[in-house]
Amino acid sequence: MNPTADYPSTIPSGDHWMEAFSAGYFAMQSEADKTDEVDQAKAFEMYIGYTNHYRTQPFIALEAEADRSFPIPNSDYVAVGKLDTLVTIADDPRKPLIQLEHKTGSRAADGNPFPFATSAVNSQITNYALCQAYAGQPLDYSIIDYIHVPQLRPKTIPLGTTKKPLGSRLEIENHQTYYHSPLSSPAKQLAKKGELNKENIELFRYRLRYVIEKEPTKYFSRKSPIIRSEQDLINQRQKLEQLTRDIDRAAEEEDLGAYYQNTNYCMSFNSKCEFMSLCDGTDTEDSGEWEPRRGSTGSGKKNLSYSKASCFMGCRRKFYYRYVKGLQKSGRDAKSLGIGNLFHVGLEHYYGKLIELA
Fold first, then answer.
1. Which distant-in-sequence residues (6+ apart) come within 8 Å of 240 by Cβ?
2. CA 304 to CA 71: how far, in whole Å?
3. Could you tell me the sign of the dihedral formed by the alpha carbons of 42, 45, 144, 81, in that order?
4. Average pLDDT over residues 296-321
């Protein structure tokens, strides 16, 4: 069963908003096969919840996925960046230019400063502000638009009681609903046969939708204004200049061990570095397990993105394998999408359609 097409979704109506919602939703459908079913369910329900929660936001979208670049002074490198969404405020006569930077994470959004503290001081925000300044339209400020990824999995459906029928087999039997959402015909048939004891993707999505609608502030929050002063931009530009020198020097001094390891990054973001087997000696570059890396449209030896810069600053050995040797695991689908990536596909087309219809 295709979880995005074969059962009814609760999609609110409303002129341009509805068109924008549909554009993002259908764009996600076209990319959904690059993500497993559970992650699909989470991304789609995050998208439905987000667009509903911010349906009446005061922003006018100006540009989505804004590509920006500028030459880094005193080097032959180009800084590249992609700003998620540029917006202004509808009723503000000053028409400020604002960067709406979408961030997804595993931590709840309410009462937890961590997602904002780390993002707010992140060089990425400063890089984007610098890119926009070079484009001749400096930002007034940025907003961290944080979206909490649900940490739920499909579960066994409880029997339920007359006092607590919600999300139970009793609710399914008596009302042919699950968390108040009407069941599709296939789900009704499974329930009738007694084969619906554990959530399938459809029912899992209904539970996700319910918990997100019930506690929206747990899943969606924003922090602003995040301001970068002119001095901040000067400091960042100087930092980039120095970084290009360090990258070039590492290339010149490769034989002296300039691409050294930082073992603190071997398990960063709670996942093992893809190159750990090369670092620990259990694999070799010519083992057949590796192939040339397929980079993004912004890749290039002299293009310096935030991710490329942070990789070098985090672990030079990882930078070496990824950007100097240009390696990736054989058979890895470069187009595969995680939850956050699929969600971003929806937002890109959602805001893009709003811009088109304005």
1. 72, 77, 79, 127, 304, 309
2. 10
3. positive
4. 86
Tell me which residue of 132, 143, 115, 150 sits closest to 57, measured CA to CA.
Answer: 143
Distance CA 351, CA 98 (A): 14
Q: How does DSSP classify residue 156? A: B
Among 271, 311, 273, CA closest to 295: 311
Q: What is the DSSP letter of 354?
A: H
> Which phi and psi (to 5°) does residue 285 adopt?
-65, -25
- In terms of Cβ atoms closer than 10 Å to its own Cβ (0-12, 13-18, 19+), residue 203 is buried
Mean pLDDT, the chain, whole residue set: 89
pLDDT tens sequence across 238-280: 999 999 999 999 999 999 999 999 999 898 766 789 999 999 9
Residue type, 27: A
Q: Which of 205, 86, 199 is nearest to 145 (CA)?
A: 86
Strands (E) located in 207-312: 220-226, 290-292, 303-304
Residue with tokens 């360090």: 246
Question: 141-148 and 98-105 as β-strands: parallel, antiparallel, unpaired?
Answer: parallel
